[in-house]
Design a protein that fits this description.
- 52% of the residues lie in helices and 19% in strands.
- The protein is an alpha+beta fold and 233 residues long.
- Strand 4 and strand 5 form a beta hairpin.
- The longest helix has 49 residues.
- The protein is globular and about 65 Å long.
Length: 233
């Protein structure tokens, strides 16, 4: 028993050391990339005005702008992983927040997003912007994992002083090996993902004194469950 405890403790310490090194590296890379991307963005703005009449050139300029936005989003996620942005907590109704998050997810084929059991949920105390990002990330992941004509379900409930929100999909689920490290940075099952979304989600939920877990879904697929404490008073 003591041997097992020692191994777990050493593994946890090694993980914390890796995350600390990872955080220093992210901070350095993120700040260094901001400058060249800012120059590209300024130059792109000038070029865009000069090629406005050329439809073909405008199409390529728009593509560059889209990829620039993606690059900036990745850097923002990297920096959010290592800094503690102050929480601006207010009393929130999750029904409206979840509806807004679901409507903000880009469409993926003919995937349908269904919301269930959200009315009447007790309020939570949280940062609206950060919690909105949590559920946008989870719903986007679920939509990308679902088949072309698949389903995503966002289900709410309350139990023992916590609000429970489950985001489910009917995709392939997550394999056993990946589950153990699912919420660590750089762990992903996507071909084009870099593995920051779930790590950032966990960080935000932890800061709200909540929890997130993965569960296999009955009938196949994945289920991510977020639990947030009900607002006091």
């Amino acid at each position: 028993m003591l041997h097992t405890y020692r191994e777990d403790l050493l593994a946890q310490q090694a993980r914390q050391e890796r995350l600390a090194t990872f955080g220093q590296l992210l901070g350095s890379i993120g700040h260094e990339l901001r400058n060249p991307l800012g120059v590209i963005e300024t130059s792109l703005y000038i070029i865009k005005n000069r090629v406005a009449a050329d439809e073909r050139s405008q199409k390529h300029v728009d593509r560059i702008g889209l990829q620039l936005s993606i690059a900036n989003k990745i850097i923002s996620d990297l920096l959010d992983m290592i800094r503690d942005r102050p929480l601006s907590k207010t009393q929130l109704g999750l029904a409206e927040l979840l509806q807004d998050a679901a409507s903000s997810v880009p469409p993926h084929g003919e995937v349908r997003i269904e919301l269930e059991g959200l009315e009447g949920l007790p309020p939570v105390a949280g940062d609206q912007g950060q919690l909105r990002q949590v559920f946008i990330n989870l719903i986007t992941n679920a939509a990308q994992a679902a088949p072309a004509s698949g389903h995503v379900w966002v289900k709410g409930g309350a139990l023992d002083g916590f609000v429970r929100v489950a985001v489910e999909d009917d995709g392939p689920g997550v394999d056993e090996a990946t589950r153990r490290r699912l919420f660590e940075p750089l762990i992903t099952t996507k071909d084009k993902g870099i593995g920051l979304g779930l790590a950032l989600v966990k960080r935000i939920v932890d800061r709200h004194e909540g929890s997130i877990s993965y569960e296999p879904r009955d009938g196949g697929g994945a289920r991510f469950v977020v639990r947030l404490p009900v607002a006091r008073g």
